[in-house]
Amino acid sequence: MTPAARVQAAIEVLDLVIAAARNRGASADRIIAEWLRARRFAGSKDRRAVRDLIYAAIRCCGEVPETGRAAMLRVAQDDPALLALFDGSRHAPAPYAPGEPVAVKGIAPAWLVAALAESGISGDEAAALLERAPLDIRVNSLKADRETLELPIAGLPLLAPQGLRLPYGTQVEQWDAYQDGRIEVQDGGSQLACLIADARPGETVVDLCAGAGGKTLALAAAMDARGRLIACDSDRARLSRLAPRAERAGAGFIETRLLDSGREMAALGDLAGGCDMVLVDAPCSGAGTWRRNPEARWRLTAEELARLAALQARLLDVAAGLVRPGGRLIFITCSLLDAEGADQAGAFLRRNPDWRADTPDFGAGTPRGGGVRLSPGRDGTDGFFIARFKLL
Predict the structure, then answer these.
(1) Distance between CA atoms of 46 and 330, rounded to whole angstroms?
(2) Counts for the chain of helices (H) and strands (E), in that order
(3) 226 and 241 co-located in one domain
(4) Closest CA to 206 of 195, 193, 218, 219
(5) End-to-end CA distance of the chain, in Å?
(6) 60, 61, 209, 334: which one is catalytic?
(7) Within a domain: residue 111?
(8) What is the CATH number of the domain that holds 158?
(9) What is the chain's mean pLDDT, rounded?
(10) Which domain holds residue 300?
């Protein structure tokens, strides 16, 4: 493919991504993968270049663009060499006509920018949400240790005791250490959230919203694979991916329970009031993970945010009913919006006077509403709100 043909290809894919964002369709990653799969003539350099152009445009445009061409022209406004490729040649985009629509540069849709500002995120800290994310891994202490593990690339140690940071795009899935379970891909902020949970050997621990089990595996390592660790989720497909991961990690003691959304206690009644710790990594907007999933900000609506906040509150109350006196409840969202963080934590404490905030100082993050907030701009991690509560 010529450079101009790559630009035209990116425009065509962007049209599909924009339509999917408006209609709750497939993710950008899936759309790109399927588009490239159908065009086997594109070499590896072409594929990488097209993908980079698409994501540059997604990151550049705050509001949902009218068209893929308008999005790519937004990028080209700051790149004369790219604009020159709009030359009308074979397989190239048509020449730029002064006055034609060009997408508006920005961080996010206006309502989201305002919500972030009200939550104390603006300026450089907001801009950092759209930077390219590094690749963080966690050394699995059930099988290895950060200080002695030899890897093809020496990573930068993170604050999390088993965390390492690698260059963007490192293909760790091909490493022996990944395939035999000595390392897992996990953002440094996510590792710190699990550290705050303070899971201990011999405890009874519930991961209420386990998904595919990334945090569950970190909890298993902290517990030295001793005790009871129950991973729960209402998504059968996601939860089914945990078993092979657990086996690879040497964490076969993990139990799984499929939940019926809205009727969680039907599957958890035997655990009521008996758990040492319950972790609620709640479904959220993902407004702290735009570095990895930038088109998510085009999909979020105020109505969806309100629905997620209501779900988080309900799950917190479900989790509270599982904890024994003196036990811990950990609330995590990968969001920087107070509606999914400080406001949620405050409302929980008002509803439950027998609980108190117990979030420790762990050397990172900014205190926020009874918890702590990690952000890409300040901490170099994905954005998280983390709160630990203790039942009196």
Answers:
(1) 44
(2) 17, 13
(3) yes
(4) 219
(5) 65
(6) 334
(7) no
(8) 3.30.70
(9) 96
(10) 188-391
